[in-house]
Amino acid sequence: MSSANVSTNVLRTLHRVHRQLADLRDRLQRGPNQVRAAEASVALSEGQLAQARADAKTARAAADAKQLQLKAGEQKIAELKRKRNAAESNREYQILNDQVAAHEMTNSVLTDEILEGLERIDVLQEKITRAEEVLANARQKAEQLRSEVAEQQPLIQGDLSRLEAELKECESALPPTVRELYQRVVRQRGEDTLAAVENEYCSGCHQHVPVNVCSEIMLSHPMFCKTCGRLLYMPEDRSPGT
Predict the structure, then answer these.
(1) In 10 A of CB 147, how many CB atoms?
(2) What is the pTM (predicted TM-score) of this model?
(3) How many domains does the chain have?
(4) Are 35 and 128 members of one domain?
(5) Where among 168, 197, 221 does a domain terminate?
(6) Who's near 103: CB < 8 A, 6+ residues apart?
(7) Considering the chain, what is the average pLDDT of its residues?
């Protein structure tokens, strides 16, 4: 490893800035993702409401059709009863009487089906009401998220710009030979480029860091973890073996 010295404070700052940048970039992406998820929820709620209304319309049309059938059946029964009353023979009377009974049975079944249909319409209307409430809440949440994200994005962008400038300043403090190795690890690991040594263990991969390596780090010599490749540094107010 190069004999160039690297300030522990610089390494600590680099690690902090990398983690803060990663968090900010995550927040920058998370906001629009949350908005898209909320908008998808609105679309789903709209679809559910539309389906509930379509089901209610279909149920109402079916009930109306059965009521027309019932009315026609009642008219037919009235007509058959008139013919039955005017029957000229017992046989004709009995035939008409049987027809009246059959139509009355049909109308009885229709009446039951109409009542069931009206009950279903009531249930579907309640479903529509709930779907309308869900949609209203989904739209409100989506609008609130859009507003919050629109407000937060410029602030996050500002913090990103500030931290990116701080990162460049810290990186410029690295010796050229170390900076090249460091940048190679950055391309591979991003915010996990650095790791503190805690009780002689790399906090990144949790593998043991030899005492001689810890001593080199204490002397501000740049050292990379032999296991994971992270650039190592000592946490504040710590020394090897403590």
Answers:
(1) 11
(2) 0.72
(3) 2
(4) yes
(5) 168
(6) 73, 76, 77, 80
(7) 93
